[in-house]
Amino acid sequence: MHDPQQLSLVGSVKALFALGRIPLASEVPLWGIYGCLLSSWIFQANNLVVENGFNWVAAIQCVLVVWGTNISINYGNEYFDWDMDRPGMVASIRKDVEAREKIAKELKEKSNGQEPGEKEVDEKARKEFGNEKIMGSSSRIIHDGTFPPYVALACASFIQVLILGMILFSRGNDPNLSSSLSTKNTGRFTPFRGVALQIGVLCTFLSQTYVGPPLRLHYHGLGELVSAMLLSPVATLFGMVGYYTATTGRSIPFSDLFSNSATSHSGFYLDSQLWYMLAAYYFYEQARILIMHIHDIEADRKGGKITLVVRIGYDHAKRLYVVLNAISLVFFGLLANSFANGTGSLSKIGSSTIMLGGTGALLAFALPIIVITARSLFYHSPSNRGGPDVESIIPILPHADLAKIVSLQTLLTPAIMSIVVLAATR
Prior knowledge:
By secondary structure, the protein is mainly alpha-helical. The chain is built from 14 helices and no strands. The N and C termini lie far apart (59 Å).
C-alpha cells in the first residue's frame, strides 16, 4: 500500500526517532546508571576506587553503550520484522486512506463542491483523530513508502558504528592500554576492558540476533529469555563492572563475578546479596516481557513468529506470569532479610534501614500492578470466555493497558532504587 507522507526535515527526524522508539528506550539506561551508582558506593566503602565522588564520564560511557544498543535493536527489529508486520500495516494504511477520503468528501460537500486541499484534510484528521495519518504508528513510515525498509537497518548500523567508535576512542585514551599516556590521569581509564568488554560483545551479538540472522532468537521461543536477561540484570551488571574498571583501572576477570572480597583478583566481587538482587530483577523483568508478548500473541502466531508465549499458549503464559513474580518476590524477600540483618555489600554502603524501607516501597508500588495484571490475564483467558463475570474490587484491564502499566512498573523500578541508594548513603 503506497501512501507516503510529505515530511519536512524536522518531521523526518522525528519520524526516524519514533521508529527507533528512542523516547521509550529509557529503562535500560536507568538500569545502567543504577549499576554505576551501586559500584561507586560499594567499592568506595571498601576504599578500592581511585578518586572520591561520582565519575560521570565513566557512567555516561556505560549508559551510552546499553542505551545505544537497545535503540539499535529497535531499528533492527523493524527491518527484520518487516515481512511479518506487512499485512497488518497494509490493512491499517488502507483504513487510513478510506478515512481520509471520507473526510475529503465531507469537506467537499460543506464547501459546495470545491475540492479540499491536502492541508485542510490533514487539519481535520488531526482534530478528529490526533494524527493526520489516522492509522499512524512508528512503523508506518517504512510501510507506506515514506522511507524504504532498509533505512531502519541503516539506522541500526549507524548507531552500532557510533558505539564502536566511542569504545575505540575510550580504549585509545586509557594509559593502561597505551604506553605513551601518563598513568597519573585516572579520569581516562576506559570501562571497556576485561569482563565488561566481554559482556558487551556477547550481549551485542545476542541483541542483534534477537530477530535478525543467524539465530533469530525471538522466532524460536528464546527471545523473551534473552531480552529479560539483557534489559535488567545484565544492564545493571554492566554498569557495575564498567564503572569499577573505569574508576580503578583494574581489569576484571570473569572468575571474579563468582568470587568474594577475599579471593577476588581485581577487588571486584558479587556476594550473595548482590546475586539475590540480580535474580529478583531478572524474574521481575521476565514477567513484564511475557505480558508484552501476550499482547501480541495472535499477530505473532499469524506471522510465524514462534515466541515463548506462542509456543506455550495463553493459559500456560498467564500461570507463568504468576510463577515468575512469585520467584521474584522470594528473592526480594531474601534481599530484604539481608538488609534487616545488616549483612552484605549493599548494607555497607549506608543505612540498611533505608535500603530495607526502599525495597518495601518498591514492592508496595509493584504489587498492585502485579495483582491487577494477573487478575486481568485470568479474566481474558480463552478458557474463561463465556463464563460468568465475577464482581471484584480488582479492576480488569485490556491487554493493551496491561502492557503499559507493567512497562511503567519496570521503567520506574531502577529510578526508585537509585533514589533509595542515594538516600541510604547520605
